[in-house]
Specification:
Radius of gyration: 24 Å
Number of domains: 2
Strand order of the largest sheet: 1-3-4-5-2-6
Shape: elongated
Order of helices and strands: HHEEHEEHEHE
Strand content: 15-25%
Helix content: 25-40%
Distance between the termini: 61 Å
Number of helices: 5
Length: about 150
């Protein structure tokens, strides 16, 4: 009887050849009684899972947004930095705004400008933000539960 066994493992191997050798060593060490045809051993590299920011091709730009189109809730400044992949970058009205990000995304073959900012100082401590750009983009980046209109 033949069996096909698939194992997913992080082998920390720089090449497929080394990965195959490590799997073969493991199988041989596990049970000397197995009749293994190592020529049929296959190793597939699993692609990295892309983030929403990578899929949307988020790129910084110096303009945070023209006007408020919606809001984000329960999001901290560090989370925004992690999701977008860069620190706040868009100068804004410092009498009203503590944090602001400007960025573009690729959406349906077009470059679309977006922005996030805390309209009144202290919004960052409450996790409340204004955004400019398509609601669908903000939902992809931060999740639907964090987006308000």
């Amino acid at each position: 009887m033949k069996y096909k066994i698939t194992v997913e493992a992080d082998l920390d191997a720089p090449t497929e050849t080394i990965a195959r050798a490590r799997v073969a060593q493991f199988l041989i060490a596990a049970d000397h009684m197995w009749q293994l045809d190592l020529s049929k051993l296959t190793v597939e590299q699993i692609p990295e899972q892309l983030t929403a920011a990578q899929i949307l091709q988020v790129k910084p730009c110096a303009v945070p947004g023209d006007h408020r189109m919606g809001g984000l809730i329960n999001v901290r400044p560090k989370e925004i930095e992690q999701i977008l992949g860069f620190p706040q970058n868009a100068p804004d009205d410092t009498s009203k705004v503590s944090y602001s990000w400007g960025f573009t995304v690729e959406l349906n073959g077009e470059t679309v400008r977006c922005g996030i900012w805390d309209y009144y100082k202290g919004g960052d401590r409450e996790g409340r933000w204004s955004y400019f750009g398509p609601t669908a983009v903000m939902e992809q980046l931060f999740g639907p539960a964090s987006v308000t209109l």
